[in-house]
TrEMBL record:
Keywords: 4Fe-4S, Iron, Iron-sulfur, Lyase, Magnesium, Metal-binding, Queuosine biosynthesis, S-adenosyl-L-methionine. Homodimer. It comes from Salibacterium qingdaonense. Its EC number is 4.3.99.3. [4Fe-4S] cluster binds at residues 33, 37, 40. GO terms for biological process: tRNA queuosine(34) biosynthetic process. This is 7-carboxy-7-deazaguanine synthase. It catalyses: 6-carboxy-5,6,7,8-tetrahydropterin + H(+) = 7-carboxy-7-carbaguanine + NH4(+). Substrate binds at residues 14-16, 29, 78. PANTHER family: 7-CARBOXY-7-DEAZAGUANINE SYNTHASE. The keyword 4Fe-4S applies. Its cofactor is S-adenosyl-L-methionine; [4Fe-4S] cluster; Mg(2+). HAMAP family: QueE.
Length: 239
């Protein structure tokens, strides 16, 4: 079995973003990413500042159960880019065998067959402010393979920092009108420890984003969200 580089396991907490926002969940965060987003809030997964543990699927599930006890039935797999790791297929299988639902967060740049088995897939293509480029044909194929699954769901989530990002989000929405779409406030203050100040700063940015969407006729069928966990706990890791 292929081992998985694990950066952190934490929870239960609430899912702070996107399609299952507010849901009680555990987090499994893998190490390594094929992107280098300028504003990545999880750069510790790829910049060498923190070292992952290489773990077997059964050990990962054991650690989730040690951390979460009997207080969870949902696990969110994030990173880094979890889609770099074949071994997560076995983790997903073991969790679902126990009746635990699964979600994944990925930018959609790498494919794994286990992706089709995940209950809630969030694909988060990166807008111009990130400095990354979208491969549209690759994204087309990704969404095609995920959107017609029976009881399992897929959504798109674009983080917005400025007007150019908004226009990119409208392009994404027009290309995949049938996929549920979320716009998320970008956090441009990743190093402050002043939670009260950050809260009001991010709420102001959320209000700006809402205003923009209200007046954008290419964005009539989207949901606009803040990162709830950042409002509650600031830039703290592992929450
Ligand atoms: C850290 S990424 C890990 C999963 C995957 N690499 C991805 O980008 O989708 C998880 C989510 O956090 C978002 N994110 C990263 N940095 C952010 C920031 N500074 N403000 C708001 N959202 C951010 C990403 O766009 C993504 O939707
Ligand atoms: N509570 C909480 N919700 C989240 N949603 C997406 C996260 C991520 O880093 O992928 C995240 C996270 O790190 N914490
Ligand atoms: S794709 Fe995700 S983890 Fe990778 S650099 Fe961008 S935000 Fe960070
Ligand atoms: Mg995060």
């Amino acid at each position: 079995m292929k081992k998985v580089p694990v950066l952190e396991i934490f929870g239960p907490t609430i899912q702070g973003e996107g399609m299952v926002i507010g849901r009680k969940t555990m987090f499994l965060r893998t190490g390594g990413c094929d992107y280098r987003c300028s504003w990545c809030d999880s750069a510790f997964t790829w910049d060498g500042s923190q070292k992952p543990d290489l773990l077997e699927a059964s050990d990962i599930v054991e650690r989730l159960e040690m951390e979460g006890g009997s207080f969870f039935n949902h696990v969110t797999i994030s990173g880094g880019n979890p889609a770099l790791h074949e071994g997560l297929g076995e983790v997903n299988r073991l969790l679902q065998e126990k009746g635990i639902q699964t979600a994944v967060e990925t930018q959609g740049s790498f494919w794994q067959e286990w992706m089709t088995e995940i209950d809630d897939v969030t694909i988060s293509p990166k807008p111009p402010s990130s400095g990354m480029k979208t491969n549209w044909e690759q994204l087309d194929a990704y969404i095609r393979r995920l959107k017609d699954r029976d009881t399992k769901k897929v959504s798109l989530k674009v983080v917005i920092f400025d007007d150019t990002d908004l226009s990119y989000a409208a392009d994404v929405h027009e290309r995949y009108p049938e996929v549920e779409m979320f716009l998320q406030t970008g956090n441009d203050e990743l190093s402050t420890a002043d939670d009260q100040w950050l809260l009001s700063h991010l709420l102001t940015r959320y209000e700006w984003l809402v205003e923009q969407v209200l007046h954008a006729n290419r964005l009539n069928d989207v949901k606009v969200l803040p990162q709830l966990h950042t409002l509650l706990w600031g830039n703290k890791q592992g929450v």
